[in-house]
Structure formats: structure tokens, C-alpha cells
Amino acid sequence: MLLERGVTCPGDPGRRGEDQMTDIDGLDLISPHVYGERGIPHDQWSDLRRLDRLHFCEPPGFDSFYPVVRHAHICEISKQPDLFSNRFGIVLESGEQKLILEKNQGIGEMRVIIGMDPPEHRAFRKVAVPAFTPRGVKRFGPVVRESARNLVDGLVERGSGGDGECEFATEIAAAHPLRVLSTILGIPRELEPQILRLTNELFGADDRDLRRGGDDRLEAVDELGKEFFLLFSGIIQDRRANPRDDLASLLANGQVNGEPMGLKETLGYYLITFSAGHDTTKNALAGGICALARNPGEFEKLKRNPELIPSAVEEIVRWTSPVNYMKRVVAEELDFHGQKLRKGDNLVLFYGSANRDEAIFEDPFTFRVDRKPNPHLGFGIGEHFCLGSHLARASQRALLHELVGRIDSLELAGEPEQIQSSFVVGLKKLPLRYRVSQAA
Predict the structure, then answer these.
(1) Residues 391, 170, 224, CA angle at the centre, nearest 5°?
(2) What is the 3-state secondary structure (H, E, C) of the chain?
(3) Given 194, 243, 298, 338, which residue has the most CB atoms within 10 angstroms?
(4) By the 8 A CB rule, do 77 and 97 touch?
(5) pLDDT (mean) for 83-91
(6) 8 Å CB contact between 390 and 134
């Protein structure tokens, strides 16, 4: 039985009872368009968490899957990569997405470490670990703080009369991690607009406002992949010929088991560092500031107690869960808490649901900047715990520090808009009104 082999997390609810019936087909859980139109499916996740078994979903247009919605179950599965594999892909693809990937030449030339299983994953992960340890991230502190200070300088100047407005998602939340990443990677600032556009087109591929234009969808995505390929391969060639003291050189000259890292894997490292590293932090910042604007008492709490900023960042990551899910594939037939799973079954681990699990979090649908304990899974857990988590935290802390010290109040100036994406989720628009502190 799997429970005898597995590693469980503290707080496993161990809930049992009669298996309730549900008519959830899974489309609302996985369709990018549904996320854009209706938002995060918290109601359905809550219903699924009340079931005593994994619920089998067959959404039209997508592969079948079991949604994994409980915190304890996600911990258990994530800590057993020999039984639940990443190498068959981390995204549950629609028929259209499969066709696009099969035809795409650029993205297909990249292998990302998050799509590897051990021992291969561990060998490739070691390449970048030195840059993302707490000590490694500490050397980036001046860059992170300067970016945050400059952006809030702009807000203060714009609101010099007392009140100001901005489109926070694009003007601040997107700009801050982009500046940080491009600086530590040693990428010229003139390339930042291109990187931002490519990132939006990649993670917003199903959003009409963000995806690459063109009547032919296959051709548009193929062009996107080729542009990524050309950009990254050019940087790799430059850093191999002229290495510098930057992350781009570390990756370009990385070695695995004593041999130079292959081109596909090097390209994949650039892809996940540039795009995933930027997009997730951007979405956490936008969603976090939206939560603070909707909960002015929590923003005031931060202003009175700035020492709460680190715990506020953890709550923002829990609340927003920018990486909404990861797929795992069952590697062998097994028994999961009395339920038979077959080899090849898709499991979709919904971190956004785990981070609202009533068995783990007290009052989980309340945003509290002083929440403790806060064992969220916003950065994952186990083998594939987010490599850039320390940098993401540092980036968010720096921006919150500047905002709390120089902005008196926040409020929405319009209705936020959700990106049409179910994998990396967040806001594409956040109209914000703010009042500048007299001391700013």
C-alpha cells in the first residue's frame, strides 16, 4: 500500500467517510479561458476537498486527469518522484496545445529541469544552485533594492499632489522582477522590452490580449519559439566566448557530471529563468497588492509594523499561488489511500487549492499579513521545490518595504482583469489609486 511507502506531511487530515458524488468534469479547473472569464475555481476545489477519494475528470478537449486538491496529498506525491513522474510533461495540454507543441521548432529545442526526474534532475539542478542559495541571493540585494526604490520613486513623483494612479500589473509588478533578473543575468536593458513581450506571449498564449498576433496560431507560436531560441542561443554563444561574473555565464558554461551541459538543457535553463522566474513574481506582486487594496486594514497593519513584511510575503504567495498546478504521471500501478491508480494516469496538483485547505490553514479565505504558521505550497515541495524562491521573496520584500514606507493608502481604481491562463495564473490589469505619504 502506498501509505506504507510514502512520506506524509504533518497535518494530514486523514478524512474518511462516504464518497460524495460530484458532477465536476474538470474543464473549469484546467481551461485557460474559464480562468480568464470566471477567475480561480475555489468553489469547485472546496467541493473536491470534501470528497474522500480522488475524483476522475474527463474535460472536453483535454486529457483525463485526477485533480489533487488536498495539501497533505500534494506533499505526499511531490516527495515520491519515483512513483509520480515529471518527465512526461508538467502541463495538462488540450488537443490544440499538443498540436502546437508538435509543430513548434523553437520551444521543442529546450529541455527544462522541471520536466526531469531524478537522478537526472538533481544533476542538472546543481548547475544553478550556487546562484540561488540565501548567500548567493544576498549579493543581489543592492540590485533588488535599487529597482524597488526607483519604481516607487516614480509613483511618488506621479502622486506628488497627494493622490496618484497607475496600472500596477504592467507598470510596477512586471517591471520590478524583469529589471532584477535582467541585471543579475547580465542582459542589456534594451532587451528588457523584448523579454517582457516574449514572456507575456509564452504564458499568456491563450489570452487574446497577450498572445502573439497572427491569423495562423501554429505559425505564431512557431515564430515565438524561434525568437526565444535565437535570443538565448546568441547569449549562450557570447558568454561561452566571453564569460563574465553573471548568471548568464554560469548557465552557459555549466557542467553536468563533468561534461558541458547540452544545448537543449542550457536553452531550457534560460527559458525557465527568464520567463518563469519573471512571470511568477510579477503575478504574486500584482495579486498581493490587489489583496492589500481590498484589505486596507492589512496594509495599515504593515505600515504600523514593517517587521511583518516577511510574513506578508509568505501570505501573498499563499494567497496568489502563481504556479497554479503541476502535472505528475503515475509511474506504476499503485494503491493511493485505498484507491487504485493505473500506470500512465495524470495527476494534476493544484497548489492554489492546497493553499486554501481548511485542514491546514485557519480561516483560509481570509488574507492576513501576520499569518503564522503558514506552510503554503506556493513554491512547491520536495524534489522540484522552486530554485528561485529566495530571490522571489527578496524581490517582493524590497518592493513592499518601499510601498509601506512611502504610500499611505491603496485602493482599486477599476476592476482587475485575470490572465486567460490556468498554469501560471495572475492579473494582467490592476488599476490602482494611491495616496503618497507626506514623509515620502
Answers:
(1) 85
(2) CHHHHCCCCCCCCCCCCCCCCCCCCCHHHHCHHHHHHHCCCHHHHHHHHCCCCCCCECCCCECCEEEECCHHHHHHHHCCCCCEECCCCCCCCEHHHHHHHHHCCCHHHCCCHHHCCCCHHHHHHCCCHHHHCHHHHHCCHHHHHHHHHHHHHHHHHHCCCCEEEEEHHHHHHCHHHHHHHHHHHCCCHHHHHHHHHHHHHHHCCCCCCCCCCCCCHHHHHHHHHHHHHHHHHHHHHHHHHCCCCCHHHHHHCCEECCEECCHHHHHHHHHHHHHHHHHHHHHHHHHHHHHHHHCHHHHHHHHHCHHHHHHHHHHHHHHHCCECEEEEEECCCEEECCEEECCCCEEEEEHHHHCCCCCCCCCCCCCCCCCCCCCCCCCCCHHHCCCCHHHHHHHHHHHHHHHHHHEEEEEECCCCEECCCCCECCEEECEEEEEECCCC
(3) 298
(4) no
(5) 94
(6) yes
Instruction: Find the helix packing angle between 95-103 and 217-241, rounded to 10°.
Output: 50
Residue 401: count other Cβ atoms within 10 Å of its Cβ: 17
Q: In this structure, what C-alpha cell is assigned to residue 307? A: 517587521
What is the grid cell recorded at 93? 495540454
pLDDT at 379 over 50: yes
How do strand 255-256 and strand 259-260 relate by DSSP bridges? Answer: antiparallel
The x, y and z cell numbers of residue 95, run together, are 488537443
pLDDT tens figures, 21-39 = 578 999 999 999 999 999 9
pTM, whole model, 2 decimals?
0.91
Rg of the chain, C-alpha, whole Å: 22
* Other Cβ atoms closer than 10 A to 305: 14
pLDDT digits over 284-343, tens only?
Answer: 999 999 999 999 999 999 999 999 999 999 999 999 999 999 999 999 999 999 999 999
Mean pLDDT of the residues in the chain: 89
Paired residues of 329 in beta bridges? 85, 346
